User: What shape does this take?
Amino acid sequence: MNETIKLLQNHRSVRFFEDKPLSEEQIKAIVVSAQAASTSSFIQAYSIIGVTDQDKKDQLAALAGGQEYVAKNGHFFVFCADLHRHELIGELEKKDVLPTIESTEKFMVSLIDAALAAQNAAIAAESMGLGICYIGGIRNNLEAVSELLKTPKRVIPLFGMTVGYPQKENEQKPRLPFEHIYHENEYNQDTEAYKKQLSLYDEIISEYYKERTDGKRSDTWTGQMAQMLEKQTRMYMKEFVKKQGFDLR
Assistant: This one.
């Protein structure tokens, strides 16, 4: 155990921030740290939009489902899959890059690159004593988000990240058991063992909610997931992705 591992394992989402903006130095440190993340074949298929305009933050908060902390934080970042610059590269170098840009593989690369960069950004922020929370809610209405952020074709806002000085920290949620996540040499397909692990994890999560809410909540993880997955949300995504120039081949 070292300080880096302690930092990583101490992560929890922060949703209440002091009314204090990040400094330019902090913002640059976070973005440069994000850029230091691994990127497939040096493609760097992502962009980061920092939102400082309060009206835009208010609108994003509403679009994200009324999440107030999207509007009230030290800084709001939006991480985007970005193959726009690669289309421009094709024009500059007079090469037909479109079949590759429109491939499912490069779409996946852009998603992975953005996620790796974001996690570096999160760790950098937390190392400075700041709190963060990922915001997937911006995908509730990507048409409106894209219009608000003026993203061009072949750019998709994927998720936001609130960053700021923690006013209040949530308790850390217990993660799935190590044995449920880590498979050695091959995927463990013992479904009965899997279900038993899930039942044990449900007990842990139920107890966590009981303690956190003084007995007002006792729901399980499998119950949460089943209820969430039963409800179809953001089913427009395939059409939106295609419209943005990711006409996957």
